[in-house]
Amino acid sequence: MGMDEKVDEVLKQYELDIKTRRRVRGSVVIESGDKFYVVKPYLKDEARVLFEESVKEKLLENGYGFVDIALKNNSDKYISEDPCGGKWVIRRWFQAQDCDVKDERQVCVAAAHLADLHKFMRLESGSTVKFNTSKIDIVSLFEKHNNEMKRVNSYIKAKKQKNRMEISILNSFKEFYDQGAAALQYIKKCGIDRLCERTISENRIIHGSYNYHNLSFAGENIITSNFEKAAVGLQVTDLYDWLRKTMEKNGWNSEMGIAIVKEYMKGREIESGEIEVLYALLLYPEKYWKLVNFYYNGKKTWISEKNYEKLEKIRKQESDRQKFIAKIKDLIV
């Protein structure tokens, strides 16, 4: 059974007056009445989707109507099955423009928007939905990643013949590994345990994937979508995700980065320990670790030219990245 036939069977489970439909990146967008919806495969269970929708309902209660809220089918369930057993969810969809990460106004507006979301993304302890708690253990994560970088370095050093990707990794290893070690030592001393305790006790929710792929603009309205990674977690990690990916696209422009952080801080008061955690996350060479780890776990007989170019770009941007990180450290009182 093809995708169109599966979608047909799924749509029969809803009371929708469908005017138009079209495929969009592995899903189908439909128009019903004056609204649009997207029909997408869903790989998780009902408990998970209930959690996601409870987060969105909290936002709706506080006046945020531009989230991809899911529809319930005729059986009062969020998940619908096709005849082959595949799971599907139908969510609101909006006609909007993707966030332009080169536009400083848009990225700052998105940071202010994130601050507003964080103020309301907290669920009551008596909630009937099953909570999904993100593992808040940055110390262990940094330790794991540092060990992985060391293992790759040892592996490459032991090779008799080395390609240019491997030579680039060897030549840059000490610089980036030292950053990872420094970030690990800093995060251990910055009071993260108290911040984690408050986060869990108050059920503070993170979006989990707050980036330009999941943000779009419809006039002055910001649409936030794809809450699949939402969980109880340190909300400053959402700000970190937004910052890192935006800054990478803008050559670590310090002025833009500080403007993003200040816009966030205008909307939500930063608590004790949060800037310190943000600094440690930025100090950690995450993009370098990702590329090194990807190399190690991939085919060694074929080196991706694209990944080699990414590695060289990281090295060239490092001076500007360090200038920005130093400005973040200046914000710590």
Protein described:
With 333 residues, the chain is an alpha+beta fold. The protein is built from eleven helices and ten strands. The strands form three sheets. It has a five-stranded antiparallel β-sheet, covered by helices on one side. A three-stranded antiparallel β-sheet has the order 6-8-9, with no helix packed on it. It has a two-stranded antiparallel ribbon with strand order 7-10. Strand 1 and strand 2 (27-32) form a beta hairpin. Helix 3 packs parallel to helix 8 and helix 5 (164-189) runs antiparallel to helix 9 (274-283). The relative contact order is 0.13.
Multimeric organization: single chain
User: On the 0-100 scale, what is the average pLDDT?
Assistant: 92
What order do the SSEs take from the amino end to the carboxyl end, as H and E? HEEEHEEEHHHHEEEEHHHHH
Shape: globular
